Amino acid sequence: MIKTKRIADDILSGLERNEFIAFYQPQFDARTHNLVSVEALARWQHPRLGLQTPDAFLAIAEDLNVLATIDRILLDQTLADLRHWDALGLAVPRASVNVSLRRLHDEHLIAGLKQREIEPGRLAFELVESIYLDEQDPVVAWNIDQLKELGIDVEIDDFGTGYASIVSLQRLRPQRLKIDRQLVRPITVDPAQRQLLASIVDIGKSMGIQVVAEGVETLEQASLLRDLGCDVLQGYAFARPMSRNDLDIFLQAQAWRQAS
Predict the structure, then answer these.
(1) Does a structural domain hold residue 218?
(2) Mean pLDDT score of the chain
(3) Which is it for the CA torsion 217, 220, 224, 230, positive or negative?
(4) 3-state secondary structure labels for all residues of 66-119
(5) Can you tell me the distance from the alpha carbon of 119 to that of 121, in angstroms, rounded to the nearest whole number?
């Protein structure tokens, strides 16, 4: 309890001191290994504890009702970093950011996004599967429709571990769905798991939805996922999450080509 209170106090102080930053994990075309996107991931540069990943602060941030604030910070940083990469001549076609369910309830979300003048096709919002539980909410449904109108892609994160249904996919019509790493991990040793993955890919293809596999840790997995029809690969086999400056170096050196 005391530790939770301390972390809660630190989160509020950290927001004031701009300690929450974006790290980026690249995503690659499964066939060509060309960079197609980066996913922005929240990190907390804690003054005493060092760099913290979301499992250390996300639940408490949600209790504090500041998750939407962290979302906004990461969005603005990601948009600034896209401009930075453009200025350097580094090809980062798109960036995706996570959006909390609470933020999708925000009646002012779309107005705020319009003020940012986001170039169509450059940004994607990743929605967790729990959105399916609330998709009938009129504000949420309107916001999702308006995101698409603005040229912001909608992606479903961690597909296969939660509440998704085929009917829900038909209603939401996301541009991409991301297969959760728990489903990816066993595919090299489990034929039934490979068949399940193939079925998910077929569902996506039949609906015109791109399929992204996350948690790709080996080149063997990458080859299998490519052969199963996955469009995009993300994981340690190619690149770990990294700071903007480290990503600059990574992109300039085309470092993933050496790994794959």
Answers:
(1) no
(2) 90
(3) positive
(4) CHHHHHHHHHHHHHHHHHHHHHHCCCCCCEEEEECHHHHCCCCHHHHHHHCCCC
(5) 6
Based on the structure, what is the number of domains in the chain? 1
d(CA 40, CA 24): 5
Which pair of tokens denotes residue 152?
A: 């912001």
CATH number for position 98: 3.20.20.450
| Residue 85 domain flag | yes
Question: Which range marks the domain in which residue 39 is found?
Answer: 2-176+233-252
CA dist., res. 90 & res. 58, Å (int): 31
Under 8 Å between Cβ of 19 and 45: yes
Q: For 25-62, how does the pLDDT look when each residue is reduced to its tens digit (9 = 90+)? A: 999 999 999 999 999 999 999 999 999 999 999 999 99
